[in-house]
Amino acid sequence: MSDQANEPHWKRDFPIQRTEATKVSRRDFARFLCLVSGGLATGSAYVAVKANFFPQEEVKGEHFVCKAAGVPLGGTRSFVIEGSSIPYILIHLEDGSWRAYEQKCTHLSCAVYYKPGSGQIVCPCHEGFFDAMTGEVLAGPPPRPLPALEVVMRGEDVYVRAGSEGLANNETHV
Amino acid sequence: MEVTAYKTNMEFFVDMQRCIGCRACEMACAECETNGQESMIHVNYVERAVTIQTTVQVCMHCDDPVCAQVCPADAITKDEFGVVHSANTARCIGCSNCVMACPFGVPIKEEKYDMMMKCNMCYDRTSAGKKPMCATVCPSQALFYGTRQEISRMRPNSTPVNTFLFGKQEVTTKVNIMMPKGSTHLKIH
To answer: What's the total number of domains in chain A?
Structure first.
């Protein structure tokens, strides 16, 4: 081929010679290594800083979700609290109690769903199971229980408010 | 890197004058399952109205393969032995750029596969130390695969030439053609 200087970049990126295509120089490998490890370090630093210095905003006040009649026994309803983008799931358990959880699996943030009749919340991505009564992890990779909201019944209306830390077994009837 | 038994001292020599047009090479090539039983070698009549002379065209395996240069899908590659391989089936998009670019008219687009197919010097045979099928069946030895010593002993009055002039463009190839003794290049036009 003609001299290297006049060669367009893509010709070097897509060489005709098989040996060139498969060869990785020590320098290129070192560059790649630096890029990947640098990216990982930056990403971890970002996550650490965000978790420690910018904690998630607490849910303030009470929020109306729906009418109690709108969710049958064993039924669910997903909702979002105004001013936030976190998806929640409201569950009307078979024993008549109400529960509200974040709909994000604590493993990798897949959307979880309630499996009617089983009393379990399932994450289909990696087979994670949570107890629908408490939000505790029953099986699978999730490291923490599902964050819960407290459900408040005001007559026929279902409201949620920030739950006491980690526990979901609060259901207040007013 | 893959380990092969490719014999680097062996070369391909084509002597067009010895071609008798028997098409044994085409038949032999088409027996191969690697090319989907299509012949990758082509026998052509020079001027059928006036002569029975035929020529035979294998891939010349250019040092700077223009087919690979024009391939937008990076489907044609050249290995460390100088063999220019046929289109990578996973990459070829059937655009026919190579068909139009090749100065020897070697690549052919097989419409039924929507893919280009060309001679890869029987890579499955040569990489195992065997000779290309066409060269083993040619009865007149118009196609010969062997060492330079062998060909110079067999054809003392011919010289292998691998430089072709297409106008101002010089093309050098891995495959040689036999020319009268002392020739250095073949001027096409």
So the answer is: 2
